[in-house]
Amino acid sequence: MTDSESAARGGVAVGWLRAVIDVRPAELRALGWSWLYIISVFISYYILRPIRDEMGVAGGVENLPWLFTGTLVGMMAVNPPFAALVARLPRVKFIALSYRFFAVNLLCFVLLLQSASGEQAIWIGRLFFIWTSIFNLFVVSVFWALMVDVFDTEQSKRLFGFIAAGATIGGIMGSSLTAALAKQVPAAYLLLASAILLEVAVFCVGRLSRLSSTLVAKPTGQPEERAIGGSVLSGLSRALKSPYLINVSIFLLLYAITSTFLYFQQAEIAKKYFTDRGARTAFFARVDLWVNILTLGAQLFVTARTIKRIGVALTLALLPLLSIFGFATLAWAPTIAALVAFQVIRRASNFAFARPTREVLFTVVPREDKYKAKNFIDTVVYRLGDQVGAWSYAGLGALGLAMTGVSVVAVPISILWLVNSLWLGRKQRLLEASVLRSDS
Q: Structural domains in the chain?
């Protein structure tokens, strides 16, 4: 293909994409590799998610708080080795090692699930629940860390919604695959497909890193492929020293607490209405599928326009505002239909608006914070929120509070979350202006 033909095709592709998002010709190839990367990661995870949820229910809903405790402990154990890799290796190498570690783990679970039965299978299922919960946050956090390192703040506002749509497409494909095959194909075989997709993600990381310095990112004064340095515990220390990162942590903590409330209620409903394990897995997959379908349209056509029109602060505030009204509705009408509808709309709003906008917050921090502090916040802090939510839910249940009581408690939590969102948006705007001044 000649240069003129390649340019013509690139022009057509850019023209088509510009009907959806504001993308520049120099960003096109990096955007494509970002899409393949996130699609691979999310197909891999959404193949596992319904299997994880079913195993969690099979092990007893009353035991879920302990599984969340195990997840937090596991996340704390994984974080320092990852920080050590970040300090010593270029980003291509530490991301590849991290993903291949999880792929090897999946192969081990394939062997365990094929040989397990009875009570042993229940305990392996609990271990898989914990492992998948760690895997989910870790691989997705690493993806977005690379994105905020490759794209600058201005680009992130234009492109992150569209990139997040790749996550939704991956989620739809993974959910559909599991929903269609869960009753006919053993879970172990689905895990093999998930492991292969992680290797596709590793290939995309290499391509993105080669493109970033010349096609996408602004000069930073530091070669992108040089080891970042710093200490093993700097993710924790830097996250706790910065008021900005502390408030990012609070945002994620409050989101996780309220999400856990809804997750436990959904698990109870599934156990009550579906007695067959395959049927429960298919139910969880269908919920994921509807969430992803609803999210996709918003990410493709609404997210970037919303951030541009109302700004980071108000876009961040959309999810806590929805949560205030949603929990208030559940307190007034605690029905199964209302709970499922709220869960679907809330998760879709998170993926379409809160998640891509939250990633914009990290584009104005130093590179070390983008990988270490961000990973600590996305994993340990998030799972700490799960832990607080899980045991709070158990405590509220012990006090005799059902869906109505839990929803009443969640309303003031959501109000606090709304205030936090508005502060973060304002602070991000000030830091962005400071970065622009220093670059000029």
A: 23-217+231-433 (1.20.1250.20)
Quick one: residue 221, left, alpha or beta (phi over 0 = left, psi -120 to 50 = alpha)? left
pLDDT tens for 96-139 read: 999 999 999 999 988 887 776 767 778 888 888 889 988 988 89
Q: Name the token pair of 368.
A: 């070390």
The answer to whether the CB of 374 falls within 8 A of the CB of 148 is yes
Task: Note the pLDDT tens digit of each residue in 235-285.
Answer: 788 888 899 999 999 999 999 999 988 888 777 777 777 777 677 767 777
CB–CB of 45/165 below 8 Å?
no
> What are the angstrom distances between the C-alpha of 90 and each of 178, 216, 224, 236?
35, 18, 8, 21
pLDDT at 361: 95
